[in-house]
Every structure is written in C-alpha cells, then in structure tokens.
Amino acid sequence: MRTFLAGAATAVVAATSLAFAAPAQAASSDTVSVQAINCHAKESVRIRQTKSTSAAALGLFPKGAGAECGGSSEGGTYTACGHTDGFFWIAINYQGIKGYVALYCITRP
C-alpha cells in the first residue's frame, strides 16, 4: 500500500513541480529557499524549521493566509490536511517566517 501511495504522491509532486518549480540554485540543508509563487493555507498549519513534525515550530500559517512558496521535497511523515501518510513538504515565507509546511496543506489560487 505504501508503494502505491508513494507512486501516487510522486505523480502529484511531478504535476505540482510545474506549478512549484524548484529554485534555480539548490538551497543548503539548513537554508529555506522560496520563490514568489503565491500559495494559500487550506487549514491552519505550523511552519516548521525543518521537514519534520518534530522540528521546532516557527509560527502558524493560518487557514486562508497567503505566502511565497518554493519547491516541494520529501521529508518526515505527517498526518495533516486529510492525509494520513504524507511526506512531501514545501518551503514557504510567511510574513518573514521562512520554514516548511506539509505540501497537502497548501493550495494555489
């Protein structure tokens, strides 16, 4: 089942990579890189320092709020926004707070 979900998630990421292209220059592992691509929170979600639910919460990305988003990438698993085994994260800059949120918790207008 995880293989099927991973394949489906890969397809979603491949499709969203057109909308959320990775930065031209790869960010180092401790640097969050975002682009001026607007996204909105489907639900209120914590902005994490790294791609893990155990990482420090830097702030809250409230439902309906907009932010600049970057590329998506794999990280720690999470249960959020209707997904019970999500593991894709997206870099965001919300009001100067740069971090990561669960990919499935954002949408583009």
What does this molecule look like?
- The protein is α+β, with helices and mostly antiparallel strands.
- The chain contains 1 helix and 7 strands, in the order αβββββββ.
- The protein has one helix spanning 2-19; strands at 37-41, 45-48, 57-61, 66-80, 83-94, 97-102, 106-107.
- The strands form 2 sheets. The protein has a 5-stranded antiparallel β-sheet. A two-stranded antiparallel ribbon has the order 2-3.
- The protein is globular.
- The model is unreliable at 1-29 (pLDDT under 50).
Helix count from the secondary structure assignment: 1
Q: How large, in whole angstroms, is the Cα Rg?
A: 13 Å
Give the termini separation.
31 Å
Summarize model confidence as the mean pLDDT: 77
**How does the helix and strand content classify structurally?**
alpha+beta
Question: SSE string, helix = H, strand = E?
Answer: HEEEEEEE
Question: How would you describe the shape?
Answer: globular
Can you summarize the main beta sheet? 5 strands, antiparallel
Short description:
Helix content is 17%, strand content 45%. The chain has 1 helix and 7 strands; from the N terminus they run H-E-E-E-E-E-E-E.
